[in-house]
């Protein structure tokens, strides 16, 4: 084997690890791409019968080091993996010789590394990208990306091995009978049914806040209107939600307070689970099957094990806790907890019975499903945008609003309605703002949105030559816009009309969507608030349209502070109340491998981040509430929808509250009412 060093120094003599394996020390210098290149002395390697690359490695630093492994073939293709090598004893780095990711195993984040593989510390590269011709392997490149100071690693034997035994072992037996990760310990982890029952039935710390009206409104702010319904009102330069009894209400909510969030596919990967109950007898009720794939959703792309038989770990644990009447017991216990922890709102996607109990105000989701046209903005994480110009969308909206409001319109405990969720109002990248305009023009000739856009352009420009000059494109006739896949120009300084026309279209698109939904809500339920569409990606045009037609503009904000997740200055100019429909902070020290969208190091920091976020929200005169996502931790092996598997809950998969976190949450919530 030939070894070439690029900005890497071989130092010292051969060393031996504690188990006798020979290793050589290498110092990766401060440079852009220091690397070791290993190549066959003659020709190429034939690894066609091999499945894994094994490399002995030890990090000599006192901190974790990042190592990249690139394997090249003679055709210019390569596989690449990046791994964090922790400080400490020598271990075996294993890289699958094919593209691989936790998504392929049915989850978004893989198990922590290294792991004990039959007594050997093993570091699996869980994410491998690229393509490789295993008949013609030409080189292996080991690098440390752009170190700021020299990084020293020790390398020992390197070989290719048949099969994928390490990949299998890394995921084998990672979930116990309660749905918990088997390879680590934490304060709330359960090891027996008796311990589960004892911890699960402990009373929630604290009592519901006193001195509030029946809906949780504060009695010390005067001059607000009593209408018999939740509404918004601006007083003393601050927007307020106001209870039916006329008192100020800052909405502290929790999303997805449900019992079915603990479902995870088991079919085809039974080896990941220890002691699964039998799919018969009393446990049969907690098994199900189905296909949760959605080919139009980016969220579901590449997720393996996404259909077939699933098991509901959370509901099964509730059954262990309370027996046959577990659902009623859970509802009572959960409402007790939420009130004791200072929450006053049941957020989106929650059990309807919790709202009907009339202990806490609640929200309702209007999900507009139907066979109507759609448009791609280029983002499409949750699917393509509904086409609001399609009459079938208007019909679907009418049906969805009718269903959502049927038993709610006369309930004063209903805070209001959200419509859809995190629609793709923008695309990706630097030109993402214009994604919906570009995507509209790329649609086929039958697209109602495309026809509306073309009609708008024809009205403004009259002749296609005028549009050609304004946009700097060749357009022989209006029919040229009608071709499927029309490539619309990107806005540029030389042709400012493009920006103006795209902006006008985005506003018209959003106006049509929000007006359609708002009018349907007003027809079927004139009493309750329209809480907007829970923006994730957005454009100024969409936000302004929402502000015009909705009572409240909602943003799902995944940032350290609410003001870092939406244009707060613009909302002050629009002078409209804002509700944060989702936020969270996650860590990986309580079982699930993911740390959520916004991560912190540990459980203590989750509580600190929550308090900081809520304080910043209360201090902003346009923000009228914040809703945490979500109530229960996601399954270790990924939820059915898209494989998300993060520790972001108030309670674990066993329904045991995370004590230090919920105490910090309670203190932060109570502080609001003490101001």
Automatic annotation (TrEMBL):
Highest taxon listed in the record's lineage: Bacteria
InterPro entries: GH (IPR017853)
Protein name: Beta-agarase
Organism: Rhodanobacter panaciterrae
């Amino acid at each position: 084997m030939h070894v070439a060093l690029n900005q890497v120094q071989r130092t010292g003599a051969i060393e031996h690890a504690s188990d006798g394996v020979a290793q050589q020390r290498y110092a990766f210098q401060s440079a852009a791409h220091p690397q070791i290149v290993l190549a066959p002395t003659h020709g190429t390697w034939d690894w066609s019968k091999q499945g894994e690359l094994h490399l002995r490695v030890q990090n000599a630093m006192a901190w974790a080091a990042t190592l990249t492994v690139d394997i090249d073939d003679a055709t210019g293709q390569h596989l690449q993996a990046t791994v964090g090598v922790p400080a400490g004893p020598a271990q075996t780095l294993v890289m699958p010789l094919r593209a691989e990711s936790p998504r392929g195993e049915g989850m978004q984040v893989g198990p922590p590394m290294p792991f004990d593989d039959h007594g050997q510390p093993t570091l699996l590269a869980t994410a491998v990208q690229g393509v490789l011709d295993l008949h013609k392997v030409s080189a292996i490149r080991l690098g440390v990306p752009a170190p700021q100071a020299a990084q020293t690693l020790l390398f020992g034997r390197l070989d290719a091995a048949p099969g994928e035994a390490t990949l299998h072992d890394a995921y084998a037996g990672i979930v116990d009978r309660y749905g918990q990760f088997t390879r680590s310990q934490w304060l709330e982890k359960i090891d027996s049914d008796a311990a589960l029952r004892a911890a699960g039935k402990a009373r929630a710390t604290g009592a519901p806040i006193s001195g509030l009206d029946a809906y949780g409104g504060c009695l010390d702010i005067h001059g607000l209107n009593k209408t018999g319904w939740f509404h918004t009102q601006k007083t003393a330069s601050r927007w307020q939600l106001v209870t039916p009894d006329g008192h100020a209400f800052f909405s502290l909510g929790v999303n997805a307070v449900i019992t079915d969030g603990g479902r995870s596919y088991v079919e085809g990967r039974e080896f990941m689970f220890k002691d699964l109950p039998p799919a018969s007898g009393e446990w049969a009720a907690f098994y199900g099957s189905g296909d949760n794939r959605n080919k139009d959703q980016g969220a579901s792309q590449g997720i393996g094990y996404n259909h077939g038989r699933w098991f509901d770990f959370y509901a099964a644990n509730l059954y262990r806790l309370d027996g046959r009447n577990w659902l009623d017991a859970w509802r009572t216990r959960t409402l007790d907890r939420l009130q004791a922890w200072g929450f006053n709102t049941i957020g989106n996607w929650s059990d309807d019975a919790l709202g009907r109990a009339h202990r806490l105000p609640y929200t309702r989701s209007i999900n507009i499903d139907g066979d109507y046209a759609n448009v791609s903005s280029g983002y499409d994480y949750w699917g393509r945008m509904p086409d609001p110009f399609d009459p079938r969308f208007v019909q679907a909206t009418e049906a969805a609003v009718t269903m959502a409001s049927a038993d709610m319109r006369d309930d004063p405990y209903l805070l209001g309605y959200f419509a859809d969720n995190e629609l793709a109002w923008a695309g990706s990248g630097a030109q993402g703002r214009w994604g919906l305009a570009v995507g509209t023009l790329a649609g086929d000739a039958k697209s109602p949105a495309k026809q509306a856009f073309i009609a708008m352009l024809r009205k403004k420009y009259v002749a296609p030559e005028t549009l050609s000059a304004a946009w700097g494109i060749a357009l022989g006739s209006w029919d040229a816009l009608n071709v499927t896949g029309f490539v619309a120009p990107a806005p540029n300084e030389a042709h400012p009309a493009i920006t103006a026309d795209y902006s006008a279209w985005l506003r018209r698109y959003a106006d049509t969507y929000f007006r359609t939904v708002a009018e349907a809500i007003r027809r079927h339920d004139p009493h309750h608030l329209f809480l907007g569409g829970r923006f994730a990606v957005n454009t100024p045009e969409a936000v302004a349209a929402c502000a015009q037609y909705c009572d409240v503009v909602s943003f799902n904000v995944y940032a350290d502070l609410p003001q870092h997740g939406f244009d707060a200055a613009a909302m002050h100019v629009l002078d409209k109340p804002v509700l944060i429909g989702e936020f969270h902070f996650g860590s990986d020290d309580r079982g699930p491998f993911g740390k959520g969208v916004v991560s912190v190091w540990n459980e203590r920091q989750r509580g600190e981040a929550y308090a900081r976020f809520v304080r910043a929200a209360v201090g902003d005169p346009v923000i009228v509430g914040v809703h945490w996502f979500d109530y229960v931790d996601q399954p270790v092996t990924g939820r059915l929808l898209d494989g998300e598997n993060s520790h972001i809950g108030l309670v674990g998969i066993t329904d045991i509250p995370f004590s230090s976190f919920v105490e910090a949450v309670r203190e932060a919530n109570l502080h609001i009412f003490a101001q």
